[in-house]
Hints:
This protein is an alpha/beta fold. The protein has 2 domains: 2-119, Response regulator (Rossmann fold, 3-Layer(aba) Sandwich); 129-223, Winged helix-like DNA-binding domain superfamily/Winged helix DNA-binding domain (Arc Repressor Mutant, subunit A, Orthogonal Bundle), CATH 1.10.10.10. 41% of the residues lie in helices and 23% in strands. The protein is built from 8 helices and 12 strands. The strands form 3 sheets. It has a 5-stranded parallel beta sheet with strand order 2-1-3-4-5, with helices on both faces. A 4-stranded antiparallel beta sheet has the order 6-7-8-9, with no helix packed on it. Strand 1 (2-6), helix 1 (10-22) and strand 2 form a beta-alpha-beta unit. The chain is elongated. Calcium ion (CA) binds next to loops. Calcium ion binds at residues 8-9, 51, 53-54.
Amino acid sequence: MRILVIEDEPSLREGLEDLFGSAGYRIESVADGLSGVRRGVDEAVDLIVLDLMLPDLDGIEVCRRIREVRPRVPILMLTARGAQEDKVRGLRSGADDYVTKPFGIDELLARVESLARRSMPRGDDLEPVLLDECTFDFGRSVAQRNDAAIALTAREVSILRWLYLHRERAVSRAELLEHVWGSSGDMQTRTVDMTIANLRQKIERNPKEPAVVVTVKGIGYAWGNR
Ligand code: CA
């Protein structure tokens, strides 16, 4: 889970970096609105903590611009005490929640954890999906082709679910490592390729010409029928 903090006040920014860092999140921070938009639209960012009062673009505008590109990324806004109007404007611009300054660190962490939980793509509530005559039931973690059940490992289900939930685009190996394995950097992208090669043996009609987990040259993998 990578959190982006957009906050111009250096002491608060550093405080938030320490707080989220010690809570086990990966963290990056920027000090102005334009940098915030630039980083916030990046898929690598999983959650955004956004100060309302910024020197260039204000938080409302930053939120609006990020939302145009990423309708679902969780955004927590930091607002000034008592400014009811700011909270309303913040929520209207697309923020999911807000915390009023000055805030207690426990409250802030609790709000972030709750937003993170809500946004986690789990897929338990998905209807079974049919692709290339293979049925995938993400909730029950099973697949079926020609009335024959296919046993999938938890990791294989996670890969399929991630690709399906992001089926409008290709997914990189690094992204799969991060979100399926929960790892980055120290693991090899070859691990992904080997796992997917095994998965294809199980689910594809012809593993040499995959129709479910397709290779996207130069990027990684994608759900078959985008
Ligand atoms: Ca500020």
